[in-house]
Amino acid sequence: MGGVTPGELAAVRGRLEGFADDILESLPRKDQRARGACYLRGLMLDGRRKSIEPMTQRLGGEVHYQALHHFVAASPWDWRPVRRRLAERLVDALDPVAWAVDDTGFPKDGTHSVGVQRQYSGTLGKTANCQLGVSVNAVTEHASCPIDWRLFVPERWDEAAMAERRAACRLPGSVRHRPKWQLALDMLDELEGWGLRPPVLVADAGYGEVGEFRQGLDDRQIPYVVQVKADTSAYPEQAQPTTAPYSGRGRRPRPATATSRPRSSSSPSKPGRRPAWS
């Protein structure tokens, strides 16, 4: 992952400090706000590794490793007001034409990061040892930025055999597996609680094919355009499934509409729904 050079960072230092003061205003102590600003500068500086030790080296003595590590890993500050203020500022700055739900893969070499396992990542284009993150992004024709995000916890991490790994990475017992589409709905609810609603929501087939996700958007009265597979069946709401007469041979026919049988991954479409990508 790249970033800016020290010279480029120095050129915007004043603006960045003003941004950090606003975003971190909810932190109760001055030293926490100062370390938060250092952490932000460390994230922005050029360098592939964004862990604490190489970041403190790039910061050139602005903050001690132990102090920054304590701020990130153990300092008792509430991240929710920080995330809320960041989302408010981004939506205000971008004035998005839509929100997009997406997931991103983060390749990992080891096995101790939260939620890591061999799993498919669209970002990587293959199955690999990685974490997966789900995000809701504000988008325009020229820019996009995540305004809320969740780390995906695979079902395997709920098993008793994973208790030691969960404890080692301090994963709370209350954090359990939730499907990616449910994480997206959770974030939309959280953003709604912050007074933020999408002008329209877009998503690829990984979400659009899930009937429960589309129903959740309908229940929340969120307009959407989602991708579905070319062979996904749809029929009018008033259509009633019927069963063909059984001839006495072979498998008994299942109920179906006159035109098609809906697939299990999709719920029936209703008339007047927003168009879907195909």
What would you say this structure looks like, in words?
The protein is an alpha/beta fold and about 280 residues long. It has a domain at about 1-75. The chain has helices spanning about 5-10, 15-25, 30-45, 50-60, 65-75, 80-95, 165-170, 180-195, 205-210, 210-220, and strands at about 100-105, 115-120, 125-140, 145-150, 200-205, 225. Strands 1, 2, 3, 4, 5 and 6 form a 6-stranded mixed β-sheet that branches. A hairpin with a 4-residue loop joins strand 3 and strand 4 (about 145-150). Helix 2 crosses helix 3 (about 30-45) and helix 3 (about 30-45) crosses helix 5. The protein is globular and about 80 Å long. The protein starts with 5 loop residues before the first helix and ends in a 52-residue tail after the last strand. Mean pLDDT is about 90; it is low at about 260-278.
